[in-house]
């Protein structure tokens, strides 16, 4: 088995909150009590009764308000959720659930029936090896995670993933990639002649095809296309080089 975890790139992001919002909410939560801290205006403090106050002082310039921190974007929903417990279990004898794994590179699933499926959800820095023949594999919202499987009678699907990998040791009829960035596929000699790869809204996808000597040749999947209008509708062709 190829060591897929060795070269998975690390990406990090952070979100900052504003301290100003805490003070604002404290004031709002006081309700009617918020007026208790105000001073009463006496007659000598009123400008229409005391003209000297009109030119005595100017209104101080208010400090620039701090912007509210932006809400978490879609990228924050990719990878393991630290608030959830890691889980791997077979549900109803048919579906293997692998969820919220982080840094676990030794997960092994032994499939016992061809109608079983594997669903990998929100995992980070994880490697899952699936042994046996099964119906399908789905990787959803994972980051820097790899899956290795033998034989699929149905599709292998990748949705909302970043920097993930798959290795096929036998065959798979179709690989579907939707809304992903950085997907690398290692095909077997048997799979390269039979697999169909369908992509949508994805980038940085590469297919590793084995040569006779056992080495791999890397081919990037096109991301740019050119469309022209014809008498019968539209004609679309690949616009970038595949190397």
From TrEMBL:
<dbReference type="GO" id="GO:0005737">
    <property type="term" value="C:cytoplasm"/>
</dbReference>
<dbReference type="InterPro" id="IPR001837">
    <property type="entry name" value="Adenylate_cyclase-assoc_CAP"/>
</dbReference>
<feature type="domain" description="C-CAP/cofactor C-like">
    <location>
        <begin position="82"/>
        <end position="221"/>
    </location>
</feature>
<dbReference type="InterPro" id="IPR006599">
    <property type="entry name" value="CARP_motif"/>
</dbReference>
<feature type="region of interest" description="Disordered">
    <location>
        <begin position="55"/>
        <end position="85"/>
    </location>
</feature>
<dbReference type="InterPro" id="IPR016098">
    <property type="entry name" value="CAP/MinC_C"/>
</dbReference>
<dbReference type="GO" id="GO:0008179">
    <property type="term" value="F:adenylate cyclase binding"/>
</dbReference>
<dbReference type="InterPro" id="IPR017901">
    <property type="entry name" value="C-CAP_CF_C-like"/>
</dbReference>
<dbReference type="Pfam" id="PF08603">
    <property type="entry name" value="CAP_C"/>
</dbReference>
<dbReference type="GO" id="GO:0019933">
    <property type="term" value="P:cAMP-mediated signaling"/>
</dbReference>
<dbReference type="InterPro" id="IPR036223">
    <property type="entry name" value="CAP_C_sf"/>
</dbReference>
<comment type="similarity">
    <text>Belongs to the CAP family.</text>
</comment>
<feature type="compositionally biased region" description="Polar residues">
    <location>
        <begin position="55"/>
        <end position="66"/>
    </location>
</feature>
<dbReference type="GO" id="GO:0000902">
    <property type="term" value="P:cell morphogenesis"/>
</dbReference>
<dbReference type="GO" id="GO:0003779">
    <property type="term" value="F:actin binding"/>
</dbReference>
<dbReference type="GO" id="GO:0007015">
    <property type="term" value="P:actin filament organization"/>
</dbReference>
<protein>
    <recommendedName>
        <fullName>C-CAP/cofactor C-like domain-containing protein</fullName>
    </recommendedName>
</protein>
<dbReference type="InterPro" id="IPR013912">
    <property type="entry name" value="Adenylate_cyclase-assoc_CAP_C"/>
</dbReference>
């Amino acid at each position: 088995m190829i060591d897929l975890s060795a070269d998975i790139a690390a990406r990090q992001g952070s979100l900052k909150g504003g301290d100003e919002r805490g003070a604002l909410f404290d004031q709002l939560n006081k309700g009617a009590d918020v007026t208790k801290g105000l001073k009463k205006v006496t007659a000598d403090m009123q400008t229409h009764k005391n003209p000297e106050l009109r030119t005595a002082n100017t209104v101080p310039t208010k400090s620039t308000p701090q912007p509210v921190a932006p809400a978490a974007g879609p990228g924050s929903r990719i990878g393991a959720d630290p608030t959830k417990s890691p889980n791997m279990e077979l549900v109803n004898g048919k579906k293997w659930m692998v969820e919220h794994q982080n840094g676990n590179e030794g997960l092994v699933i032994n499939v016992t029936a061809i109608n079983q499926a594997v669903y990998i959800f929100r995992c980070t820095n994880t490697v899952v090896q699936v042994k046996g023949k099964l119906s399908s594999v789905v990787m959803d919202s994972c980051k820097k995670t790899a899956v290795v499987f033998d034989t699929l009678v149905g599709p292998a699907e990748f949705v909302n993933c970043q920097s993930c990998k798959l290795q096929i040791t036998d065959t798979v009829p179709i690989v579907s990639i939707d809304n992903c960035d950085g997907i690398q596929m290692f095909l077997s000699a048997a799979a390269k002649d039979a697999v169909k790869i369908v992509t949508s809204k994805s980038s940085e996808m590469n297919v590793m095809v084995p040569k006779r000597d056992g080495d791999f040749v890397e081919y990037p999947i096109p991301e740019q296309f050119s469309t022209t209008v014809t008498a019968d509708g539209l004609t679309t062709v690949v616009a970038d080089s595949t190397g």
